[in-house]
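Quick one from the shared queue. A colleague (R.T.) flagged GTPase Era as missing a structural entry in our internal table.

Convert sequence to structure tokens.
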Amino acid sequence: MNDENQPSPDEPAGPIGGKGDTSCGFVALIGAPNSGKSTLTNALVGAKISIVTHKAQTTRGPVRGLALEDNTQIVLVDTPGIFQPRRRLDRAMTATAWDRAADADLILLVVDARRGADEKAMAVVERLDEMKVPAALAINKVDLVKKPKLLELVADLSAPDRFDETFMISALNGDGVAD
């Protein structure tokens, strides 16, 4: 069947259902409450899909957004903040974050530069070390911290081969987000 609207075999097709190198992957954004996961998700998607507020635990379930880069579709999964749960709801939210991380093609750990490598951040890093999912580190809110502290933070968090990439960003004002 020959249809005029179909691309010829020699012609490159569009991103959906056609020829050309296309790829898709899931990236789970995890980290402590108020580390900037939702702000970063919104910045990468280019739209407000996640609620952003100073109140901790605003994100109670995974929020998915799509970021496009050339022929690549990245499904971003904004997860609830990871912390030491006390109530059943807290345990469910933390479990959801870890479940989404385990299902992802890449985990992006978002750390608040002002808090640094505190106990909460290091507990998340240690658990990431046990997982078989590639991980990257996004140190957020770098505009609020002096450079020597940032270098110390990177050294504390980035043991050899722990993260595939490390990004210094300010999700709120967009610095480093395009990287």
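Residues 23-168 form a domain with the Rossmann fold fold (CATH 3.40.50.300).
The chain has four helices and six strands.
Added to the table.
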